[in-house]
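Entry 12.
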Amino acid sequence: MQWLLKARLRRAQELLENSTAYVDQIATACGFQSTVTFRSSFRRMTGVSPASYRRRFKAA
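Predicted 3D structure (tokens):
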């Protein structure tokens, strides 16, 4: 299960960096049942929220 979670979160990072999709759309696209679960898992893995991650690493 940890491998799957990490794979989903890596995909979410790619989408946050390279797309303009909303966070809830990214959560769904990556297989999370809810945005709350996604945000919590993302923060645990990266130490920042998905929105903060996007601001920091968005491709120009």
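Annotation: Residues 2-18 form the longest helix (17 residues). The domain at 2-57 is CATH 1.10.10.60 (Arc Repressor Mutant, subunit A).
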